Amino acid sequence: MKMIQNYLDSLESYLPDEMKQDVRDELEASIMDQVEDSQEALGRELNTEETEALLLKLGHPMRVASSYLPKQQLVGPEFFPAYKKALEIALTITFVVIVLISVFGLLSGQSIFDSFINIIADVVNKGIYVFAIVTIVFYVMEYCDTNLNHLYAWSPKDLKSKSKRLALSRVETGFELVVTIIFMAWWNDILTWPAEALIELQPVKVSLSAEWQSVFWSVNVVLGLSVALAAYNFVMASWSRFSLAAEIILSVASLVIISQIWRFEQLLIVDPALNEDIRWERVADHVDYGIYSILAIIAVICVFEIISNFRKIRSI
Amino acid sequence: MTDSEHYKKLKLELRRGVIILAVLAELQEEHYSYSLRKTLMAKGMDIDEGTLYPLVRRLEKQGLLESEWREESNRKKRFYQLSEVGKSTLKQLIEDWQQVETTLNNILK
C-alpha cells in the first residue's frame, strides 16, 4: 500500500491545488477497488510485483495528471496556421537584418570568416528569442480565446495570383541585395579596392573623371531605393504591382543616368606610367570602350526588365 | 509507421467518437468511476482509467453530469449521473448516432 500512496503523492504533485484532493480521492478509491477485486480473484493479498503491475497499467503519474488538465498544447490547430506564417515572417526579417548588419561589419574591416561566424551565432541567438516571443504571443492569444475571424478574414477576390512567373527566389533577391550594398559602399568610398589596371605588364592607376560627380547623388538615390526594394522583395518572395512598378521606375531612372554618363567627354583618367613607349591615349580609349560596353549591357538589361515587368503587371 | 500502428491509430480515433455516447448512455444509472468502467468493460467497451475518469470530469464541467461524494466501504467515492441537460443531449446524440449508423451501413453495402 506504500507504493500506492507514493503513486498518489507523485500524481498530486503534478496537479493544481484546487484539483489535488478531488482527483486523489477518486483515483485512490478506484485503485483500492481494483486491488480488492484482484485479491478476491486470487484469494490472497497482492504482492509487490502485482501491485507494481497494476500501477504501471494505470500509467506514469505525470501523464495521468496531465489528462485532467485543460489545453495540453502551446498553440492549437486553430491558431497554428497563423502562428506558422508569423514565425516565418519574423525569422526572415531577423535573418535579413542580421545579414545587413554583418555586411556593414565586413565593410568596416572585419574578416569574411569572422563575419560568417557572427552571422551563424546571431541567427541562432536572435532566432531563439524571436521564436520564443512569437510562441508566447500566440499562446496568450489562444489562452484568452482571441477571436480569429479578423486574422482569417478573406475574400476570393483578394487572392493574388501565385503563378510561377510571379514567384521570387529568395536566393536571387538576397544576392542582389548584398551586391547592391557592396556597390553602394564602393560608390561612397566606404569600400575601396585597388584602382590599378595592368597594361602591358605595367601597373597603371585608373580613376573616375570629375564628370562622374554630376551623377553621384542620382546614383545614390537609385542604389538606396534598389536596396530597399530588394529587401522588400526578399521578405515577400513574390512580385506585386507595387514592387513591379517600383522596379520599372528604377530601371527608367537607371537608363536616364546611363544616357547622362554616355555624354561624358571623359570617363576615366589613366595616370601615365614611366614607360613612354606605351601610347596612353589609345589605352584610355580602350578602357573607355570597355566602360561604354558595360553601360550598354546594363542599358539593354534595364530595357529588358522594363518590358518583362510590364508583362508581369498585366498578368496580375 | 507500420500498417498495424496505422490501424491502431485509426481504431482509436473511431472509438473516440463513440466513447462519449457510451458513457452518457451508461450514466442514465448512477455510477462511480470504477463501477462505470467495470460495467462498460462487461458490455464490451474497455476504456482505461486515464481516458475515462478525466472524460467524466469534463462532461460534468460541461453540465451534462451531476456528481456527489459519498462514503462507501470507508472510502470516499464520487457518484455520477446524467443531469437534465445530459438527458436531452443524450437523446439527441442517440438520434444522430442512429442516422450515422444507417448512412454508414448504406456506404458499406
Jot down its keywords.
heterodimer; A: 316 residues; mainly alpha; 3 domains; 3-stranded antiparallel beta sheet; 10 helices; 67% helix; elongated; B: 109 residues; alpha+beta; Arc Repressor Mutant, subunit A; 4 helices; 66% helix; globular
SSE topology sketch:
The complex is a heterodimer of chains A (316) and B (109).
Chain A: H1 2-13, H2 17-42, H3 48-58, H4 61-66, H5 80-107, H6 112-143, H7 170-187, E1 196-199, E2 202-208, H8 216-236, H9 241-262, E3 268-270, H10 280-315
Antiparallel strand pairs in A: 1-2, 2-3
Helix pairs in contact in A: 1-2, 5-6, 5-7, 7-8, 8-9, 9-10
Chain B: H1 3-26, E1 31-32, H2 33-42, H3 49-61, E2 65-72, E3 75-82, H4 84-108
So, CATH architecture of chain B? Orthogonal Bundle
| Largest sheet: spatial strand order of chain B | 1-3-2
- The whole-number mean of residue pLDDT values of chain A reads 83
Global geometry of chain B: globular
Q: Tally the helices of chain A.
A: 10
* Biggest sheet descriptor of chain B: 3 strands, antiparallel
**Per DSSP, what share of the residues of chain A sits in E-state strands of 2 or more residues?**
under 5%
Order of helical and strand elements of chain A: HHHHHHHEEHHEH
- Pattern of helices and strands of chain B: HEHHEEH
Beta-strand fraction estimate of chain B = 15-25%
